[in-house]
Amino acid sequence: MTTATNAVSSRREPELLGQTVVLIGGSAGIGLETARRARGEGADVVLTGRDPERLERAARDVDARSTAAFDATDAAALKRFFDGLADPIDHVLVTGPGPSYVPLLEMDADQVRQALGDHVVLGLEVARAAAGRMRPGGSLTFMGGTGGRKISRDLGLASAATAVLPPFTAALALELAPVRVNLIAAGFVDTPLSASYFSADGLEARREELRTTLPIRRVVGPADVAALAVALMTNTALTGATYDIDGGQQFVS
Which domain holds residue 162? Predict the structure, then answer.
């Protein structure tokens, strides 16, 4: 039984064979790890990012089909990128900017607009630019978080920004159909972006805290999120939904 099962598994056809995956923010962290996972499932990958040198290193790492260095929050540059793609695409993952933690009374009007709208505006601009290039049944996946679901003075407007993403995702799924739209809500993920919020000692202390308190008894890594992202690409019954991946962090923090 075991030998037969292993033989069948070894002959499994890659689930993204012949498909193209675009990673907006694909030069590091979750985006790069998803590119690596998608390549393992037979996909061609296209990476975008702001830093040309880091992007080139990432492209060599995963043997990317192509790269494009630009600021994804620049709507005109985003449109030029998608318009310039030679072939149709199947899946897009948008990792987006990290949260901003500023006390409410210290924020000016522009900071409030940015905190509340950054992820929604970016998601909408990606959807608008990519829609005409995507094959039916393809997918658009956004990144959100679970940490902002609890109200805290330290989080500022992050909780409000977190709350708007699930209904935005669901509404966009109806408009983009048959392209599917989903949201990944992550807790702490051990990436360079997460590390940027801590000192070296603070980061290791946070990791140790999570190892001892999370129900999974380990820290969530980018490979964990990449596995979920690829699952959302390959399962064509999934759309309009939010998928948590935080190792149980929201229940014990």
Answer: 16-190+223-247
The answer to whether residue 10 is domain-embedded is no
Let me know if residue 176 belongs to a domain.
Answer: yes
Whole-number Å distance between alpha carbons of 15 and 91: 13
How far apart are the C-alpha atoms of 226 and 75, rounded to whole Å?
26
Whole-model pTM? 0.90
**CATH code, 166:** 3.40.50.720
- With H, G, I as helix, E, B as strand and everything else as coil, classify residue 168: helix
Query: Is 202 a member of any domain?
Result: no
Predicted confidence (pLDDT) per residue in 172-194, tens digit: 999 999 999 999 999 999 998 88
Count up the domains in the chain and report the number.
1
3-state secondary structure of 137: strand
To the nearest 10 degrees (0 to 180), the angle between helices 158-176 and 109-130 is 20
Q: 11-60 pLDDT, tens per residue?
A: 789 999 999 999 999 999 999 999 999 999 999 999 999 999 999 999 99
Which sign does the torsion angle of CA 199, 202, 208, 210 carry? Answer: negative
